[in-house]
Amino acid sequence: MKIRKKISSVILALCLLVPCFSMVAIAADGKISFSDPSTKVGDMVEVKCAVRSTGGSLGNVEVQLSYDSEALSFDSGDGAESGEDGSVTLAGNGGSSEQVFMLKFQALKEGSTQITISGATIASASGSELTLDQGNSTVKIAAGDPSKIKKKEKDSGSSSSAEDIQVEVDGTAYMLTDKFSEGDIPTGYAKTTVSLDGQERQMVVNENSGVTLGYLLNGDSGSFFLYNEENATFSTYAELAISDKTSIILLSDTSEVNLPKEYQQAELKWRKRMAKERSEKGVEAIREQSNREWKSSAFTMYFGTPERAAELYRALEQAEDIGPEDVEFATLQGVMFMARKNDMAFTVGRKVLVIGEHQSTVNLNMPLRSAIYYGR
């Protein structure tokens, strides 16, 4: 009987100890969490990674992420450094109880894919190591437009670029170079790699239209020129952005340019006037002047028809059911001063769209002109 009582006492003691072990388990010092966004093939998607401490301010933070490089392509992120395909390292110095990283990826393949943590070193403000619960991000990718996917730039392991080469545009010699800064890249364009003369050249491509531009130098000054991939030539180029998805590209010569399928060719008539000038010797000289008034109204000339005005309205308002019959022009004409009060205006239903000229150059007498306008 005594033996049975001893055995029962041991079993009871063991049963009482079991919950005690679970009570002394170490609680996590915080959590690494992610957003779970949805996107489409070809589109950019942002993923939020938040490192949170429950016990005070964070110190140095370093998180290694892994992802499927066949489903996602890393684009950019604050405090983020891309490693080998499928890895990104996040680094920050805390300063508060939360450190947030915003990461941008491009979706490559339809389906569902995960971004996971492959390693993490998190310290408190005092330098002690913290243990954080680790989450992951699930990115859902729907069908989209694969043509928007940017070509992957090859990493040569150094900052070297292809040698500059000479090209000719309209009889003028230029140097094609890879040495342009991020600030030189036009809005809506991103870096891409183009094969030319056996070398991988750095150029930029419009993510919506597919238009490719190369950076050409003329002496110390440089600018982007339209690149024609079929015959490896360049053309002078200027682009007038109407909206995020609509723009006008002005070309000096279209004979050697193949327009992307998203663009439609049109003609803008440019007026010039001839001015006579008399020299000191009394000899008349003919001088061709650009009429600044006509230059500023190139936009209004192009969209001065109901058909094109309706096209502009559809692009700005995403209203596909608007036609030329819905457009009524309301451009104001001066009565006393015989001058227009706005460059162009038209109404669609109860909405009024007013187009005004943007001052493109420094004008020292603008205060005087403004006073005259106010006086009118």
Kindly report the average pLDDT value: 75
Major pleated sheet = 7 strands, mixed
* Helical coverage, percent range: 10-25%
**What is the radius of gyration computed over CA atoms, rounded to a whole number of angstroms?**
32 Å
Low-confidence stretches: 14-25, 154-160, 270-296
- Number of helices, where a helix is a run of at least 4 consecutive DSSP H or I residues: 5
> How much beta, percentage-wise?
35-45%
Shape: globular
Cα(first) to Cα(last) distance is: 116 Å
Structural class: mainly beta
Number of strands: 26
Describe what you observe in this structure.
With 376 residues, the chain is mostly beta strands. It contains 5 helices and 26 strands. It has helices at residues 2-23, 292-296, 298-302, 306-317, 366-375; strands at residues 30-34, 38-40, 44-53, 58-67, 72-77, 80-82, 87-92, 98-107, 111-124, 129-130, 133-134, 137-142, 165-169, 172-176, 189-196, 199-206, 212-218, 221-228, 233-235, 237-241, 247-251, 272-278, 284-290, 327-329, 344-348, 351-355. Strands 2, 4, 6, 7, 9, 10 and 12 form a 7-stranded mixed β-sheet that branches. A hairpin with a 4-residue loop joins strand 9 (111-124) and strand 10 (129-130). The longest helix has 22 residues, at 2-23.
